[in-house]
Amino acid sequence: MNKILKFSIAAALVAGTAQAQELRGWNTHVPDYPVSIALDRFVEMVEERTDGRIQMQNYHGATLGEGEFATEQLQFGALDYGVFSTAPMVNTVKELGVTSLPYVFKDPEHQYRVLEGPIGEDIAAAMGEANMVPLSWFASGSRSFYANAPLNSVEDIAGKKFRVQNSDINVAMVEALGANATPLPFGEVYTSIQSGVVDGAENNWPSYESTGHFEVAPYYIIDNHTIVPEGIIFAKTTWDKFSPEDQAIVRAAAQEAAIYQRELWAARETKSREIVEAAGVTIVEGIDTTTFAEKMGPVYEQFASDPVVADLLKRIQATE
């Protein structure tokens, strides 16, 4: 799709949003997913606390388009808000690249401390230049590999075809492990594994379970290679229309929704793992991820050589 056509679609969607006088929110997950439940809570809080001045409608299950397309629409202002992964934004906002680097975060709590502190403020400023305003960060889980054949070590990753999000960093990470990276929309992963287009993918427990991917890729190796940020993000063109008072209300609601989502997420992770274990999935854990991390040199060299990104990386590594 060329840029002119994309812009035309975006303009049409913007016009439709204005006529409806209702903000449209995107989300890729099914309605009963922790992200979706928390996003619904967010909308309820905002509408109640603004006495209905701000009306919003969530569209779950990627009904407004798959991730990459939806991210572009947010940047155009054709979508008003939603819960977005930052992975597809890396190619537009270079500062976000550091958050998708393999093994950059020690654990989810470390990620929150980074994103909710001075480093996060600098990243948010860079996102603003691309018409995006992050308000809060959700739990997104640690991502690991799964496939239709046994995965016991880094050697088993090599040679296989893995679906990745459409991010240059993710492609480079998989290729550094000796595998073939295939960017695909999230909604196409199940049939792509089933038909042999790819051998597997990489994701967290709830995504692996809720999509049924474990049915076609029953081998899961816990390497926790990335903890990719995901959160409530507004189009800046929409955000700037709010009064300062309403901005404060919306931001506070987004942060409360994030705390709620993290609680739901912890419970869902446990439940999802129990479901796939009961289904007979082979889970390999306790591996030495050093063998994985040692292969990431080319990835860091390629994506952390920019002075701005390199500085952010040093600051993240220095954050306790």
From TrEMBL:
It is found in: Periplasm. Keywords: Periplasm, Signal. It comes from the Bacteria. InterPro entries: DctP_fam, TRAP_DctP, TRAP_DctP_sf. Residues 1-20 form the signal peptide. This is Solute-binding protein. It comes from Roseobacter fucihabitans. The gene is dctP_1.
